[in-house]
Write a structure and sequence with these properties.
Blueprint lengths: L2 H13 L2 H8 L3 H15 L4 E4 L2 E4 L1 H26 L10 E6 L6 H16 L3 E6 L4 H7 L4 E5 L7 E9 L1 E6 L12 H4 L4 E4 L3 H13 L6 E4 L7 H4 L4 E5 L10 E5 L8 E8 L6 H9 L6
Parallel strand pairs: 3-4, 3-5, 8-9
Antiparallel strand pairs: 1-2, 5-12, 6-12, 7-10, 7-11
């Protein structure tokens, strides 16, 4: 078993085929197929079900992939720690902060703003990167991240978590959705349509989707990994999803963002986590970030 095999497994699960995984990893399909055959032979169990429409991970394959991601996060942290190295004679290096969220329109602007404000607080260079939610804690522990911004708190041994404030939330609808023409939408109106609950973004699902269900949303829940959601969920079933940091702009040619009516909208908790002993001044961060008008 080696790192390349673990990378191939994760790419196949994410992209749904050996050929797409090979293109993503910059190798031949034969190389990926050979690596998977050798790995499955060593493991003594199939990782994937092969079919004409592509491949799907077996139950064992999905569990293996989950563990492989954690190993890759640790490995990536070690590689980055070595590659960053000291950036000056005093041994200083950039303060690396992870924004644990899926990619979205405006995320680059968000990261740049966070970096600029954080540099004033810390008095050193800050780099803010988008990282998958499930990788935040492993990356903190591996030393690849000095801090992580998350929806809701992160709990783990050796981790200190403080609340930065809250951010506004809204909904994302397909352009053909019956509510797309509304200036604002209510939970009562949304309850007639299914809501997307991604299984690979636990913090978002718990502190956003589940929070709205407790707040009165009666929608049918559709669960799937983000990259594997049925496209017809939005275009045919008129499904919707909640979004955080709506003020940054999410609308596109396929979707529109709509705010929730006053009284229905929830303020979503945003937290900052660091390894214990990092010495980050949360009060200073809260005051600085409040000036951005993104947090309240």
């Amino acid at each position: 078993m080696n790192i390349k095999q673990l990378k191939y497994v994760c790419s196949i699960v994410d992209l749904g085929s050996f050929s797409a995984a090979a293109a993503h990893e910059g190798v031949s399909v034969q190389a990926v197929s050979k690596a998977m055959g050798e790995l499955e032979g060593k493991l003594g169990a199939p990782l994937f079900e092969r079919g004409s429409a592509g491949v799907r991970p077996t139950a064992f394959g999905r569990a293996f992939c989950d563990r492989a991601r954690r190993v890759l996060a640790e490995w990536g942290g070690l590689e980055r720690f070595v590659s960053d190295g000291p950036s000056g004679p005093d041994g200083a290096r950039p303060f690396v902060m992870g924004f644990c969220a899926p990619e979205f329109r405006g995320v680059g602007r968000f990261c740049a703003l966070i970096a600029a404000v954080s540099e004033r607080v810390l008095g050193r260079e800050v780099r803010v990167e988008v990282v998958p939610c499930e990788e935040g804690l492993p990356l903190l522990r591996a030393g690849a991240l000095d801090a992580a911004i998350t929806v809701g708190p992160v709990e783990g041994e050796g981790i200190v978590c403080g609340r930065l404030g809250t951010m506004s939330s809204a909904v994302l609808l397909g352009v053909g959705h019956p509510l797309a023409g509304c200036e604002v939408v209510t939970l009562e109106e949304l309850s007639a349509y299914p809501v997307f609950r991604p299984t690979d973004y636990a913090h978002y699902s718990e502190f956003v989707v589940d929070a709205y269900r407790e707040h009165g949303l009666q929608s049918e829940v559709y669960e799937a990994p983000t990259g594997e959601a049925d496209p017809e969920f939005f275009s045919v079933r008129n499904g919707f999803t909640f979004i955080v940091a709506g003020g940054l702009g999410w609308s596109s040619a396929e979707s529109v963002m709509r705010p929730l009516a006053k009284g229905d909208a929830l303020a979503i908790p945003i937290c900052l986590s660091t390894p214990r002993g990092a010495g980050v001044d949360y009060v200073a961060f809260r005051r600085a970030l409040a000036s951005m008008s993104l947090f309240s």
